[in-house]
Design brief:
By secondary structure, this protein is mostly beta strands. It folds into 4 domains: 29-125, Sandwich (Immunoglobulin-like), CATH 2.60.40; 131-227, Immunoglobulin-like; 233-318, Immunoglobulin-like (Sandwich), CATH 2.60.40.1080; 322-440, no CATH class. 14% of the residues lie in helices and 35% in strands. The strands form 7 sheets. Strands 2, 4, 5, 7, 8 and 9 form a 6-stranded mixed sheet that branches. It starts with 28 loop residues before the first strand and ends with a helix. The relative contact order is 0.08.
Length: 440
């Protein structure tokens, strides 16, 4: 049997042929979002994976400076195009400078079908910090009291400026009521007043901060502003004492945060025995009383900002010790010489004083006046009698720390002696009256 001969050219081989005319779906966005601002190109453009029957699917990525997607299409997408199977492209590989960039991506299947473009722009790259065009400043760094307001000024510029602000920090934390910063397009301006009235004394820092939409920020700080809303600390010494002669002056110590510009005001209190001439604006005036009594004066201290402290009371008592005055004439003629110095008292006079003191049972060395002057206890009559120039009926009187003395004897002993004499006289008269009645 003959084997049939089959001619190869007469054989038909059937192969399946697939036709895919359907474009894949457009990729979905992942990041960055449209309108985002980035401080650098350190990120990636990302999109979602597209599923399609014609595998593998590749992606066409396009990025260009923002001119609108329509312009890209009109230019037949003549942009920086990358085609690969990846779903992310590092921005640093395709972006060369700051600015707004449009990006888009399309999917392409194995049959050559291409999806619509997904437009993911623009994204703004901003690697430049805001620029402070006018340095932050304040019109005064020393504030307080009546000078409680200062002017704060600053300005900033940035193509993508978003916000600017002033922050003031002090001893108690952040201060409210600070001037704001007004943003107008690409510029920001601070131009307003800050009041420190009622704030705690201390140092405050004034801080200016500006930021753009990419998150870049710049700051400036003014040197510490000193706020003084406290009156000076005042100490007065030298009062609350008794003087018998001369003058008295207070010792005033003042401590203040600024020190300079301190002023003083002294005013007389009510009830003073007499008005004393003194420098009302002096720190330590001199008071020279002439009339016995108690004196009160009040001091108010004011610093350079008008903060006051006081009034502080300064008081003293003045009681005169009469100086012993005796007419002394060396030659027995002529008039008196005033003896006030203990060294000038003769031994005869000293002996007479000691004898007189012994009569009232007091040591001679304790006979001193209010100011410790031993001459205050010398009775003028003793000096006068010893000198031979005083009248015989003189009844000299002298003041001491214990009271007035008459002929060296305290005044109340004279009262006691008078009462005793009156009683004796009454008893004697009564006795004689009784004898007369009996004789009748």
């Amino acid at each position: 049997m003959a084997t049939p001969i089959v001619r190869a050219e007469s054989l038909n081989v059937l192969c399946p042929i697939y036709f895919d005319c359907t474009a894949p779906s457009a990729p979905s966005f992942v990041a960055p979002g449209a309108g985002e601002y980035r401080p650098s190109a350190d990120f990636s453009f990302e999109w979602g994976t597209v599923e399609d029957e014609s595998q593998p699917v590749s992606y066409i990525f396009c990025v260009a400076p923002t001119t609108g997607i329509a312009a890209h299409e009109a230019a037949n997408r003549s942009c920086n195009t990358t085609e690969a199977s990846v779903t992310a492209v590092p921005a640093g590989d395709v972006i060369s400078s700051d600015g707004a960039w449009d990006w888009s991506v399309a999917a392409k299947d194995a049959a050559g079908n291409q999806s619509d473009w997904t437009n993911g722009g623009p994204v703004v790259i901003d690697t430049i910090d805001p620029v402070v065009t006018g340095e932050l400043g304040v019109s005064s760094t020393d504030l307080g009291g009546s000078s409680s307001t200062t002017h704060i000024y600053a300005s900033v510029s940035d193509d993508n400026l978003q916000a600017c602000s002033i922050t003031i920090n002090g001893p108690a934390g952040v201060v409210a009521g600070t001037p704001g910063c007004v943003v107008d397009g690409t510029t920001g301006v601070v131009d307003g007043d800050w009041s420190v009235a009622g704030l705690e004394s201390g140092e405050y820092s004034v801080n200016f901060v500006a930021s753009d939409r990419s998150g870049r920020a710049v700051g400036r700080t003014v040197a510490p502003v000193r706020v003084d809303n406290s009156g000076p600390a005042v100490t007065i010494a030298g009062g609350n004492r008794l003087i018998s002669a001369g003058s008295v002056s207070p010792t005033v110590v003042v401590a203040d945060a600024h020190g300079e510009g301190i002023t003083y005001q002294w005013e007389a209190g009510s009830g003073n025995t007499s008005v004393l001439a003194h420098e009302q604006q002096a720190a330590e005036p001199i008071f020279t009383p002439k009339v016995d009594g108690t004196y009160n004066y009040f001091l108010t201290v004011r610093d350079v900002f008008g903060n006051t402290s006081g009034p502080f009371r300064f008081t003293f008592d003045y009681w005169q010790v009469l100086e012993p005055i005796a007419p002394v004439s060396p030659d027995g003629g002529g008039l008196a010489t005033i003896v006030t110095d203990p060294a000038s008292i003769t031994s005869t006079v000293a002996a007479a004083i000691k004898q007189q003191n012994a009569m009232i049972s007091r040591p001679a060395d304790t006979e001193v006046g209010m100011n410790g002057d031993a001459t205050a206890a010398i009775a003028p009559a003793v000096l006068g009698v010893l000198s031979g120039n005083a009248p015989a009926d003189a009844a000299p009187i002298a003041a001491t720390g214990q009271g007035w003395r008459i002929l060296g004897i305290l005044w109340y002993w004279w009262i006691v002696l008078g009462v005793v004499i009156i009683i004796l006289i009454a008893l004697i008269r009564r006795r004689y009256s009784s004898q007369i009645i009996k004789s009748i």
